[in-house]
Amino acid sequence: MGNPHVLVMPYPAQGHIIPLLELSQCLVQHGFKITFVNTEYYHNQIMNGNAMRDKIGNQIHLVSIPDGLETLEDRKKPGKLSEAVLKVLPEKLEELIEQINGSNGEEITCILADQSIGWALEIAQKKGIRRAAFCPAAAAVLVLGFSIPKLIEDGIIADDGTPMKKQIIHLSPAMPAMSTETLSVKATEWLLCNSTYDLEPAAFALAPIILPIGSISASNQPGESSVGNFLPEDSTCLKWLDQQPPGSVIYVAFGSFTIFSPAQFQELALGLELCNRPFLWVGRPADITDGKSNAYPREFQDRVAARGRMVGWAAQQKILSHPSVACFISHCGWNSTMEGVSNEIPFLCWPYLADQFLNQSYICNVWKVGLRLERDESGIISRREIESKVEQLLGNEKLKARALDLKNIVKTSIKEGGGSHNNLKNFVEWMKS
Fold first, then answer.
1. Which PANTHER family does the record match to this protein (predicted)?
2. Angle of CA points 345, 351, 352, to nearest 5°
3. pTM of the predicted model as reported, rounded to 2 decimal places
4. CATH: 3.30.2130.30, 1.20.1300.10, 3.40.50.2000, 3.40.50.620. Which one for 5-220+412-432?
């Protein structure tokens, strides 16, 4: 068989697109042809981002299909987006496959899809195309899905998958506790995961079908930028980092979905000011405070000008690998979690939604490389809480030592002979057979 032509289909969200783009780049290095399918909205973002487009180059054929949504506001509504994913995208993807397979002797030999869109795998099965699924989240999320029949039997969730009551589940003493509020799973011929055996041994023991190939971000060359930067990067912050003492900078970033109330945003700003340490804060106020561009406290930017940098977007992998970075105040998205772990960075955890709370449990309870930021009686993470936890974190030498251990575990997994390396090698050989 010649080199495979793989159609890659992510769920339409930045945190899902990034790791599949990185995996696609890896497959290109093995001689594969990649057709990467985004919705028109995300496709246009990529094509308008020069740094990202240049990094992908001509190796990956980027194509788009419509999602049927008219406004950005609709795309930010989970209900509207889910409806489009289920009702519009399947037909459009099938049309695209037929178009590719009917042109110039082309043939899609494998569909690699986000595990959350099982209909893409059903289309592959119907058309006799090999299929593989990729989970951009922790393996524990999939294991919870595999446990649904037993959870139904035990009366924890109903037959339709909804929780009978809100409670915390422990599937294994070595896995983080999980809430019954969000459950989902898909299955396929291959089920790949952006993790490693040693980071989640209990999860992989419960579900050997899941094959870790991560950390995908750690496979990049040191200091290399992610392919998934959708917005123009502020490269000046890296020069600013060069001027800071080693292990001194608080890095603050919350991904692309987190929204703060104006009161919470101001407490965060004042907390960083109280820390009296250098900080790099990534995030546009108008995006993370629901459109309020004047969200900073009065004269805050003037007061912190000598030691604080606020930028709209930056190359996170380059930042986390920089020797001046001391810790990461994070929303605990799995991509950010894996990037932090791969770079020996301790965390202050500020989860916002979905699996971010599970990832916080891994960071704080299982791996013990971070601390939780706790809310007060009004539901706010206060400036004093931020100041206190930063000092606790940076003064904890045992926690820093564990962060180094985790970095070495991740690095070992992707080297020749490591578990993630072997799984990816076997997957490539299967697709070429």
1. GLUCOSYL/GLUCURONOSYL TRANSFERASES (PTHR11926), UDP-GLYCOSYLTRANSFERASE 83A1-LIKE (PTHR11926:SF1555)
2. 145
3. 0.84
4. 3.40.50.2000
